[in-house]
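Dear support,

I submitted the protein below through the web form. The confirmation email said the job was done, but the results page showed an empty box. After a refresh the structure appeared. I'm attaching both so you can tell me whether what I see now is the final result or a partial one.
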Amino acid sequence: MIDLIPYLRGERSGRVFGITFDDGYENNLRNALPVLRRFGYTSTCYVVARQAGKTNVWDSKLGIPPAPLMSISQMQAWIDAGQEIGSHTLTHPDLRSTTKQDQRLEIIDSKLQLEAQLNQAGGVSNFCYPYGGFDKSAVDCAFEAGYATATTTIRGRCNIGTGRELLVLPRVLVSRTTTCLHLVLKCLTAYEDRRGKLSVTSPDI
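What the results page shows now:
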């Protein structure tokens, strides 16, 4: 996401894409990193600050088995390998159902905690809303925290924007069932845009 910012702001032009991973699973380090390094790609992994070295407890109510998350030392190894760590809150709540005070804690304090524990140039400047859920209050908190971007699960490709527009970025979903042809359609056509792109000029943000 750091590398994308000049394009998102319109300071550079070109057809580019970014790679993001949510939650900070250990298998990102084990399985994804070798592939990223092989092709010379960078990526951003959004981690849940208080769950470092633990498991995805927020998925237990869905019947999803626990999976190990990266520890702080593993996050640093990810950074040292040329990748980026972003914040995914402290505990992975749905921010739409939390108070403004709790939103500030989850969004702002997660940034501070990760910056205190990790050595990353430029600090932790990118954020991802858990479950893709946000409201005006959550966007306000992300703005107050000083994040450069924040991503959602709204489907679509990004356009040039400024300020708060960059705090509600859509993304293109790539799942285990996505074929090569499907990926080309998602990235190079309006396929994902038609699936529900957010108008970032909305007064709601």
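Response: this is the final, complete result; the empty box was a page-load delay. The first strand starts at residue 20 and ends at 23.
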